[in-house]
Amino acid sequence: MQPIDTSLLRGRHLYLALLTKEYEPQLRTLARDERLWEFTKTLLINDTYDAQFDAYIAKAYGHAGADGQAFVIHRTSDDAVIGMTRFYDGNEEHKRVNIGYTWYVPEVWGQVYNKECKLLLLQYAFETWGLQRVGFEVAHQNLRSQKAVEKIGGTREGTLRKFMLRPDGSVRHTVLFSIIDEEWPEKKAKLFSMC
Fold first, then answer.
1. Which DSSP state fits 166?
2. Which of 95, 133, 123 is closest to 1 using CA atoms?
3. What pTM was estimated for this model as a whole?
């Protein structure tokens, strides 16, 4: 994928900044809220939290470059950090990328932020990179995130059964969603109306 121009990832309510080391202390504190990981079990809030967070951030940096990018989400009204998101598993040859690993501090859940964040990322994927598919992979128990993807226009494609094991050893099935380029103009208009 081509390098990211973050000036194109700024909306009315939020803007995205590239993940850098300077953000790590603040993100470590914000991500400690166990409500964020209720369904994914990505980070378990226990005595190994710091080691888990270090691995989580290392993976986020691993998504920077040819196949994606990790972002820190800022609220425009006060520049507060309110979460993270990523492009990942990008493939320029096949014109696709996934959006995921998205989380927000609970105080902003249900507000406009996720809709605008996805609008900015989808717009970048389809209009700047010229991709034909954006995918979303959601844990089967995470009904809140599944509903959020449906609200932004994602089409449910199916479920990958027993797709992975979560950090606590439990099985995760993965629900697949996508938006494709032919659908983008209609989905974009809907998202704009919601932001």
1. -
2. 95
3. 0.94
Q: Which of 94, 124, 153 shows the shortest CA–CA distance to 18? A: 124
**Direct distance between the N- and C-terminal alpha carbons of the chain, in angstroms, rounded to an integer:** 27
Distance between CA atoms of 64 and 68, rounded to whole angstroms? 5
Strands 81-91 and 133-139 come out as unpaired
Half-sphere exposure of 193 (CA within 13 A, CB side): 9
What token pair was written down for 67?
A: 């196949």
How confident is the model over 112-145, as pLDDT tens digits? 999 999 999 999 999 999 999 999 999 999 998 9
CA distance 86 to 19: 10
Contact of 131 with 93, CB cutoff 8 Å:
no
Distance CA 99, CA 31 (A): 19
Write down the CATH number for the domain with range 6-194.
Answer: 3.40.630.30
- The helix/strand/coil state of 102 is strand
What values do phi and psi take at 67, rounded to 5? -110, 0
Q: Which residues pair with 139 in a beta bridge?
A: 174
Query: Tell me: the pLDDT tens digits for 83-120?
Result: 999 999 999 999 999 999 999 999 999 999 999 999 99
Name the residue ranges covered by the structural domains of the chain: 6-194
